[in-house]
Model the fold of this input.
Amino acid sequence: MKHQTISNRREFFRNAAMAGAGLVMTPTLAMGSGDDTIPHLKNSSPALSTRKLGGLEVSGIGLGCMSMIAGTYNPTPPKDEMVAHLRKAVERGVTFFDTAEVYGPHGSEEVVGEGLEPFKGQIKIATKIGFEIQNGQRRGRNSNPESLKKAAEGCLKRLRIETIDLLYLHRWDPQVPIEDVAGAMKDLIAAGKAAHWGLSEVAPDTLRKAHAVLPVAALQSEYNMAERVVENQILDTCEELGVGFVPWGPTHRSFLTGRFNEYSRFDDLDRRSQLPFFSKEGFEQNMPFLRIVRKWSQAKGITMAQFSLAWLLAQKPFIVPIPGTTSPQHLAENIGALEVKFTAAELNEIRAEIENFKLLGVRAPETALVDQ
Ligand SMILES: NC(=O)c1ccc[n+]([C@@H]2O[C@H](COP(=O)([O-])OP(=O)(O)OC[C@H]3O[C@@H](n4cnc5c(N)ncnc54)[C@H](OP(=O)(O)O)[C@@H]3O)[C@@H](O)[C@H]2O)c1
Done:
């Protein structure tokens, strides 16, 4: 019996990894693609294990939709491909999708709205507001309650839904008391425009103040095996308050997947070109970190992306990573991480190895205590 389980799990990882490499059609992919399969979906989505973000239940891994529009890593992919990609994600059992008003601006929400429209009520969409947008350009922060309410209306239209499942304040503008932001979110929830609310990149004290006015479902901040600043009090505060945690950048912008080497360089339009971590010096110092990731992924019989995501999932039961991908193959690979288990001894060993390594271009732990 035990042998059976292991061989099934091996098969699962092998399929997911091969799908990642574009080598095979997994049974779920074979269900078809695009609109033709939609009526079939209601009863056929494989159940991925779920996790709770406060009172919101979602698939244990979500899909980040930021790079479905240009502005961060890649040029804008064809919209019909992203619509099909979103629908395939639902076929595969993903029920949690992350976007924001400023991605584009608006373009990511538009594609998410179109792609997920047939699944209204079956999946959960999170979006973020709180930046000024003028003439199609992102400007400064704006946490003004009336502006937030107006922004939420725009999100609802683009997402083609009546209620936003999880509405985050993208970045807090400290000129507006956080209690007033919570008040605006309370009004939006009372009006049925949002079901839950969250914050992004705030310090533990700010999270506490906000939560005291209106329980926060989730905090979304950067976290992965390389960038671990939230381990300084932030995760503990979430645990104490019952707030879920959504790590953005869970593969460290693809670094942890082993996609790059020390000769990799980025286009000026790629956000990574501006980050010291991904500079020539950064790669020289940071690349050997991947030996740890490679060693452990080989030992577990999984890919580096799966190992990195599984490691995050193993840190706390209320963590739901949202790897961003424009590739159905990468998505198939990433959700395979939900099947990976670690022993306590393995986690301790991994922890000792990563803490021993000094990375260039990561944040200092004290910055976790300051709103970003
Ligand atoms: N709250 C915030 O301030 C904030 C900030 C940034 C992002 N976010 C959210 O968090 C999400 C994830 O963050 P992120 O996109 O910055 O970082 P990420 O998920 O760590 O990395 C995304 C990059 O990794 C690549 N990738 C994903 N899976 C892969 C795999 N299995 N193998 C190889 N490459 C893979 C993607 O390329 P492909 O497209 O080719 O797969 C993409 O270039 C975003 O989509 C967005 O929704 C929030």
